[in-house]
Amino acid sequence: MISRSGEVIRGYGTEALLRSKLWIAAHRPGTAVRCNLCEWTGPRFAERQRCPRCKSLPRNRLVPFSLSQLGLNISQSTVLHVAANRGEALYVAAQKPQLHIRADLRPLDGFNFQGDMCNLGLESGVVDIAIAWHVLEHVPDDALAIEEVARVLRPGGAFLMSVPIHPAGNRRTRDDRTVAATDRESVFGHHDHVRSCGLDYGDRLAAAGLTVRTLACDQLDGTTLDTLGLSPAHVVWCGTAPAGQ
To answer: How far apart are CA 212 and CA 201, in angstroms?
Structure first.
């Protein structure tokens, strides 16, 4: 291992040595990369493209990028933020929404609303922007959850969401409730995922009556991907409620 002074500490293997070198490189001054959640800049991100300051990963930094690219203005809006990562929640709060509903199924610190995504308990037509980031792959009845989010959107309101695509480039979403919990890691990509999501996932928003736009990171230029540390494997969908809903 290498200490912050650069001294080699004996007794650590090659992997630990590499991690230490990456830590040192990420903490040197520089402006080649930027975290758009906490505004840290440096010469490179740390291991797994993690921000050295706020610990954000590519999927987390995709939230502010997607909001900007898809023209969604959080300021003075009512935002429903489902199972929000801390860094994502802090970013949204910093944009000064009129109301920031941080919802989770469980009573957790940092959340101000407890509710099931399939039965939110909110009045219809009260939310301007809903955000669910890497959430729906955990929800058994995701169609019902999407319909519930669509119900609470105001006319013209937007549902911004992303799910992990597994395996990479997978075209068709696979739902299979016969897959045993012990096999979910190998079949769905993670032990607590209940489906393997594909590039067709936006069709589920359309089925709920939303007009869908897609932001595929593999279509972004290399400079944007490198500067913000985004992954070309990620996809975002934005479903907009009918204006006359």
So the answer is: 11
Amino acid 52 reads P
Q: How many other C-beta atoms lie within 10 A of the C-beta of residue 238?
A: 24
* CATH, domain range 54-163+201-240: 3.40.50.150
CA nearest to 158, candidates 149, 167, 166 = 149
pLDDT in tens, 104-115: 888 888 888 898
C-alpha span between 210 and 163 (Å, rounded): 17
Peptide bond into 232 cis (omega under 30): no
Element (H, E) at 158: strand 153-162
* CA 2/CA 9 separation, integer angstroms: 6
Question: What are the two backbone dihedrals, phi and then psi, of residue 131, each rounded to the nearest 5 degrees?
Answer: -130, 125
Is residue 23 predicted with pLDDT exceeding 50?
yes
Distance CA(177)–CA(135), nearest Å, equals 18
Look up the pTM and report it. Answer: 0.86
Residue 61 tokens read as 């930094």
| CA 122/CA 104 separation, integer angstroms | 13
What is the 8-class DSSP label of residue 7? P
